[in-house]
Amino acid sequence: MQDWRMLYQTPALADDDQRVLGELDTMRDNLRYQIAEPHRRTGQLRRTLIAHAIQGSNSIEGYQVSLDDAAAAVAGDEPVETNPQTWEVITGYRDALTYVQQLARSREFTWQHMLINALHFMMLRHDLSKWPGRFRPGDIYIDEAHTGRRVYTGPDADNVPPLISELIDWLADGEPETPLLVRASMAHLNLAKIHPWRDGNGRMSRCLHTLVLARDGVLAPEYSSIEEWLGVGRNTYAYYDALGEVGGPTWQPDNDTSKWIRFCLSAHHQQAQLVRQRLDQAAHLWELLDTWVRRNGLPERVVSALHLAATGGRVRRTVYQRDENLTDDQATRDLRALVRADMLEQHGETRGRFYLTSPELRELAAPALRPKEIIDPYRRRGQAPATAVVTVSGGLVVAASSPGGRLNDVRAAGVRRREVAGVRLRQCRHAGRGACVYQQRQHVGGDQARDPDLAKLTVNWPIADAAGSHRVAAPHAGSSAARSVSTARVTARSRGNGGRNCQRGACDGDEMDRMVVIGPVVVARLGPGTRRP
């Protein structure tokens, strides 16, 4: 048996890990049977899941794209908002994921160097200066953007080819008894820490994770991927933490990888819950829309357009026409009928025209789209949500909890992790939405954060996501001015009343001096001159 000690080692699984794996096996089997019966709503969901994966994985690297434009990339259409440079990145990643989908069914598949280099080339072919499809020629470092602190140094360039060879051999026939989700997670970790290319290492590591799952054949890769989950702001920072804590600041393959496996299994479990919820919602919504269509004497095919709009998507004539195999005239006539029926609202002109949901359609769909809580499988059922406190610049202490919650832990840039159990919140003011704001410096269990230039703050429970977007906001305590935050970066972008594009309390501004996240709430005052990382 080959010794794989050049790589980070697969850990022994704890009882909790085995339990979560068992739950995941059951969920994956159920999903497989749920999507086995062909239905138009399943095809639409599949396209949406791929779009979420593209959006999530690229947002981690700072390439922001709306879900509508990501869906346009999947459909082969042109973007509405995305700039040309970012669009090249997005379509490159789309092509790599499309190849992964094809490799899932390839009978002649083999693991080899040129396979992963080919995937890398697809992602970065738009910029030859980054050596797409070729290993880096020299050293590589990762520095924290807002502090300049060096957080990782990759192995020497001369060690990259043998390390990749070791990984390829392991993928081919190493540890075949290891559970699939654990193998995919270890492949992800090892490629991320080898860091073999000049750029694109994170995206390639996540893509490899998905490819390992795809080769299993139980579920199509879009139903197995955790790229969407990793791209949500709170999860992105937890992802960075897990890679850094387990992998170490340099290549350290003897480190214990148990926490990384636990992190990935939790991500898979929560993403599977989300996919199952979307399938259930799609079935319920389709039934509601089908009933309305029949009652109003419209052709049954328009349900697909209504379904897309009701779930927050942009309906384009070209996509609707292609999905339903219609002529130009038929598609145009259908969409105009839905506008006349007050179910869709038309936006734009000629080639840029698209359709969005109307208030009437939103009201009709609401019963089917009520979200359910996504639960961390490692948290005991019935356990109260965690609460966190951090002291930042100016002595402002902030907390996030459900009312009566307990203090747990906070992770912040430049602030060491603290775990303070069993301390209840005191002296809460402006406690709406579960937020407690302290005006004076408080000692919490004898420990507090002392970083005056806090630029990022993440917490270990769900942060509300408004209407599926990456931006949520709430009025600052004692003020009617909305303060906004992008959960993709977990940083605020408004000062005073200077926000732009304000709608329903959400603002997108230029300057950052505060952060407000709702559901639970985090409020943080940033140091002067802090900019988006």
Give an overview in words.
The chain is of the alpha+beta class. Among the domains are: 281-368, Winged helix-like DNA-binding domain superfamily/Winged helix DNA-binding domain (Arc Repressor Mutant, subunit A); 386-525, no CATH class. It is 42% helix and 13% strand. The protein contains 16 helices and 18 strands. A 4-stranded mixed beta sheet has the order 7-5-6-10, with no helix packed on it. It has a 3-stranded antiparallel beta sheet with strand order 9-8-11. A hairpin with a 2-residue loop joins strand 8 (409-412) and strand 9 (415-419). Helix 1 packs parallel to helix 12 and helix 7 crosses helix 12 (258-295). It is globular, with a radius of gyration of 24 Å.
Which features does this protein show?
13% strand, 3-stranded antiparallel beta sheet, Arc Repressor Mutant, subunit A, alpha+beta, globular, 533 residues, 42% helix, disordered C terminus
